């Protein structure tokens, strides 16, 4: 764990940016120069203003807030919607410090898009965190641009390690990673929803059904982490030959669960590529 982090600016501290910001604050790691966050509305800005050490800007009240935040911070985390990224980059480009590290939180937006607006010399990295970062259990994929030094990568890695684990990958793999760890929490929540519905269908009330389903997922993942065992081995230990679990697992396998996950991740990957196309700047500078 690092002793401190450089000054941070969260440009668009929505659900993902807000999760990382809250996770950094919760980690207790000092941030030299402080943290600034921007949001469009005063309501959203007020939520973050309650966090210790965070200066929260409502763009509705301070239209130049992104530019000022960019000028003040060493590490800039771009968390606006993918289609909004080029406009934001154009807005902050004249104000980015020479020593700045620009980190994308936006799905599908390529490093080429960042270079086409900010210039090839600006240090840029793509990240793909997930929302469990809020509780220090995140998984973040990190892809460095050509201008990033080993020290730059280490700085950004240290930032995301305050909220979980980091996997460094080449840029061509970052979208594929997003379909697993980035979108993955939603898959887990959906499975819990469906198991809860099944429990209600078996006659349990909603509260007990939720406790059973949520507690089972939480306990199973805690066991997986604590044991260090392969998940297939842990599954085998629960699945007694000719028992009830074996019968249930057979139904799931016969339903083609493996194919469903392949199709789901393929669909997410296709959408990431669409977002990349949608967010590419128009005109000769798009590259």
From TrEMBL:
Pyrroline-5-carboxylate reductase dimerisation domain span: 171-275
Q: Which Pfam families match?
A: F420_oxidored, P5CR_dimer
Question: What pathway does the annotation place this protein in?
Answer: Amino-acid biosynthesis; L-proline biosynthesis; L-proline from L-glutamate 5-semialdehyde: step 1/1
Annotated EC: 1.5.1.2
Is the DNA-binding keyword given for this protein?
no
User: What does it catalyze?
Assistant: L-proline + NADP(+) = (S)-1-pyrroline-5-carboxylate + NADPH + 2 H(+); L-proline + NAD(+) = (S)-1-pyrroline-5-carboxylate + NADH + 2 H(+)
Regions crossing the membrane: none
Which stretches make up the Pyrroline-5-carboxylate reductase catalytic N-terminal domain?
8-108
**Keywords, ordered alphabetically:** Amino-acid biosynthesis, Cytoplasm, NADP, Oxidoreductase, Proline biosynthesis
Record localization: Cytoplasm
Q: Which family is this protein grouped under?
A: Belongs to the pyrroline-5-carboxylate reductase family.
NCBIfam families registered for this protein in UniProt: proC (TIGR00112)
Q: What does this protein do?
A: Catalyzes the reduction of 1-pyrroline-5-carboxylate (PCA) to L-proline.
Protein name, entry field: Pyrroline-5-carboxylate reductase
Which organism's genome codes for this protein? Microbacterium marinilacus
């Amino acid at each position: 764990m690092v002793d401190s982090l450089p000054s941070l600016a969260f440009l668009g501290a929505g659900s993902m940016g807000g999760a990382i910001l809250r996770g950094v604050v919760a980690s207790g790691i000092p941030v030299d120069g402080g943290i600034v966050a921007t949001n469009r509305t005063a309501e959203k800005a007020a939520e973050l203003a309650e966090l210790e050490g965070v200066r929260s800007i409502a763009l509705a009240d301070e239209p130049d807030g992104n530019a000022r935040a960019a000028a003040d911070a060493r590490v800039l985390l771009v968390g606006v919607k993918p289609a909004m990224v080029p406009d934001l980059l154009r807005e902050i480009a004249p104000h980015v410090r020479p020593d700045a590290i620009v980190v994308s939180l936006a799905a599908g937006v390529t490093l080429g898009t960042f270079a086409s607006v900010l210039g090839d010399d600006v240090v840029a990295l793509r990240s793909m965190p997930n929302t469990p970062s809020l509780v220090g259990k995140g998984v973040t994929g990190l892809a460095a641009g050509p201008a990033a030094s080993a020290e730059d990568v280490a700085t950004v890695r240290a930032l995301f390690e305050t909220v979980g684990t980091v996997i460094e990958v080449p840029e061509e793999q970052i979208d594929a990673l997003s379909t697993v760890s980035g979108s993955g929490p939603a898959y887990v929540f959906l499975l819990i929803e469906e198991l809860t519905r099944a429990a209600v269908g078996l006659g349990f009330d909603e509260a007990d059904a939720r406790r059973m389903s949520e507690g089972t997922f939480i306990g199973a993942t805690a066991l997986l982490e604590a044991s260090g065992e392969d998940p297939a081995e842990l599954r085998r230990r629960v699945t007694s030959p000719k028992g009830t679990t074996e019968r249930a697992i057979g139904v799931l396998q016969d339903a083609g669960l493996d194919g469903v996950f392949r199709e789901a991740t393929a669909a997410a990957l296709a959408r990431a590529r669409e977002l990349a196309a949608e967010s590419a700047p128009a005109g000769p500078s798009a590259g």
